[in-house]
Amino acid sequence: MKNLNICIIGGGNLGRAIAEGFLKAGLPAGKLVITRRRPHLLEDLTKKGVRVESDNAAAVIGADLVILAVKPYQAEGVLQGIRSSLIPGQMLASLMTGVSLESLKSWLPETVIPFRVMPNTAIALQESMTCISAPDCNDEQKEVIQELFETLGKVIYINEELMAAATVLGACGIAFALRFIRAATQGGIEIGFGAEVAQEIVAQTVKGATELILQTGHHPEREIDKVTTPKGITISGLNAMEHQGFSSALIQGLLVSYNKINNG
Length: 264
Ligand SMILES: NC(=O)C1=CN([C@@H]2O[C@H](COP(=O)(O)OP(=O)(O)OC[C@H]3O[C@@H](n4cnc5c(N)ncnc54)[C@H](OP(=O)(O)O)[C@@H]3O)[C@@H](O)[C@H]2O)C=CC1
Ligand SMILES: O=C(O)[C@@H]1CCC=N1
Known about the structure:
Elements: E1 6-9, H1 13-24, E2 32-35, H2 43-47, E3 51-53, H3 56-59, E4 65-68, H4 75-82, E5 91-94, H5 101-107, E6 113-118, E7 128-133, H6 139-150, E8 153-157, H7 163-190, H8 195-216, H9 220-225, H10 233-243, H11 246-263
Parallel strand pairs: 1-2, 1-4, 2-3, 4-5, 5-6, 7-8
Antiparallel strand pairs: 6-7
Helix pairs in contact: 7-8, 7-11
Bound molecules: NADPH dihydro-nicotinamide-adenine-dinucleotide phosphate (NDP) and (2S)-3,4-dihydro-2H-pyrrole-2-carboxylic acid.
């Protein structure tokens, strides 16, 4: 991965998070170029030795991999701007929600291989869940891509039809999980803790719950059964949450996000 030259177009929330993740993973800063129209907002990256540009066409020259992280509605215009600077064999990863491979191919030269990547903002800490769809890449390219994104968290390959579902579950999922953390913290304050301590307790508890599932592969309910003492306080709290629609609210939220991707 240290040999790849990487160009990130669109240094916003996600583009910047990826740049930070690559630097943490040990990619030499000189191998990274990142663009946005207001490059001064990436001054901290410049200070770390990353080349920051506002000229996309200049930035893609020499890149082995171009990562496109602008808003979906900007995709066509941005690709038209770099089209004539791209050369055969370059790979292009699109992070953009709801932009199909078919659309990307129609905007790109035939010799440039597009694939879709759906990470989340935990990529800045090398803790992303990244779903990738790369049907046009050969096995060697897929291996390179997998190795690269595995330096930034977990990677799975999926069919493109599942990209919308991956976006909701993995990318939006960060916000959904954080809202749980915020709500639990607010509850913690009401029962006696200061905000900082409440947040620390909730965050470490969520991390512990996550590790119980990741390290054992158990169904969540199996681990829940170990906490719910008969006639105890946990089951009373859980049941009260379910009476208020806890699981149902989460599932409905996922569906609203999912339907919005599909219906625009
Ligand atoms: N945020 C997230 O958690 C996730 C986002 N995504 C997808 O990633 C993409 C980016 O999302 P996000 O980072 O949140 O959005 P942001 O708005 O934070 O970032 C987009 C960036 O693109 C820059 N930009 C706009 N036009 C150009 C241009 N012509 N050339 C170069 N840069 C440009 C903007 O900066 P400036 O105005 O200075 O040019 C802006 O900072 C979206 O398509 C989104 O669907 C996918 C998964 C997760
Ligand atoms: O909210 C959004 O549209 C983007 C896609 C996934 C996360 N953020």
